[in-house]
Amino acid sequence: MRFTKMHGAGNDYVYIDARSQVRDWPALSVAMSDRHKGVGADGIILALLSEDADMRMRMFNADGSESEMCGNGIRCLVGFALSRGIVPADNPVVVVETKAGQRRVTPRWNDGRIVWASVEMGEPVFEASRIPVNAPGLDIVMDYPLQVDGHTFEISCVSMGNPHAVAFIDTPVNDVRLHELGPMVENHPMFPERVNFEIANVIDGGRLRVRVWERGSGLTEACGTGACAIGVIGRRKSLTGDKIHVALPGGDLVVEWPGDGGVTLEGPVIEVFEGEWPE
């Protein structure tokens, strides 16, 4: 089975043309994502046929669970599909069907390769029941004091097609034991479908420094939907402007949200290598 490894700001996935394949995708994602015995990735992403869009995306995390959406992953998927003829290379905009709905991706070419892309990520959802968040008496969860292992994070929750809990903190994000506290937040009873957890420092009104614990994958170099969630919460709390640069361990992403309507995410598309997985 042929595959391609790609990453967007360090958020790496294995990409597979799955249009004519039937496999145990969760088990394959666990095996291929293993960084010692497999390819090494945050998960696998499949290119599939769609009846209503140019293509369909399925995404499986490193633990085999399936997620609704991935902002970094969808950019690279479009680059993968255009370069391999899954979608015609002259498409100026590629419409991708995801479990979170259709998303429009605009690629940027350089010397015959896609190096950057912007994604129309849809509108953020703040209603607790739709994220979902177990928060009796609260329609919207903003600055909620969540306690884990003796620490209190004032979290604000939003869905970008998948659930996020965002905490703006004064402590430098690199000083937080996110590898220990992240799993506790992800699996907290407050989140019936688990949650992605982001911590952020405000550098200035146009720039944030961020780390992410990603649901199903753990510590990641970047998270596209997470960057959007942070940008939306920062804008809603008047900590940032409409357009921000999100500095993550793997690189920068650009998020724009004017306070209503849809969110736009921009970032790199990088192909690492191709390979063949034994049957």
Domains, number:
2
Q: What is the H/E order? A: EEHEEEHEEEEEEHEEEHEEEE
Question: Beta fraction of the residues?
Answer: 35-45%
Q: Provide the gyration radius in Å.
A: 18 Å
Structural class: alpha+beta
Q: CATH top level of the largest domain?
A: Alpha Beta
Question: What is the name of the CATH superfamily of the largest domain?
Answer: Diaminopimelate Epimerase, Chain A, domain 1
Q: What is the count of helical runs?
A: 4
If you consult CATH, what is the topology of the largest domain?
Diaminopimelate Epimerase, Chain A, domain 1
Task: Kindly describe this structure.
There is one protein chain. Strand 4 and strand 5 form a beta hairpin. The protein has an 18-stranded mixed sheet that branches. The chain has 2 domains: 2-122 and 267-276, Diaminopimelate Epimerase, Chain A, domain 1; 128-262, Roll (Diaminopimelate Epimerase, Chain A, domain 1). The chain is built from 4 helices and 18 strands. By secondary structure, it is of the alpha+beta class.
Overview features:
globular; 2 domains; Diaminopimelate Epimerase, Chain A, domain 1; 18 strands; alpha+beta; 279 residues
Write the SSE topology:
Elements: E1 2-8, E2 11-17, H1 25-33, E3 43-48, E4 55-61, E5 66-67, H2 71-83, E6 94-98, E7 101-110, E8 113-120, E9 144-148, E10 151-159, E11 163-168, H3 178-186, E12 196-204, E13 207-214, E14 218-220, H4 224-236, E15 243-248, E16 251-256, E17 264-268, E18 270-276
Parallel strand pairs: 2-3, 4-6, 11-12, 13-15
Antiparallel strand pairs: 1-2, 1-18, 3-4, 4-5, 6-7, 7-8, 8-17, 9-10, 10-11, 12-13, 13-14, 15-16, 16-17
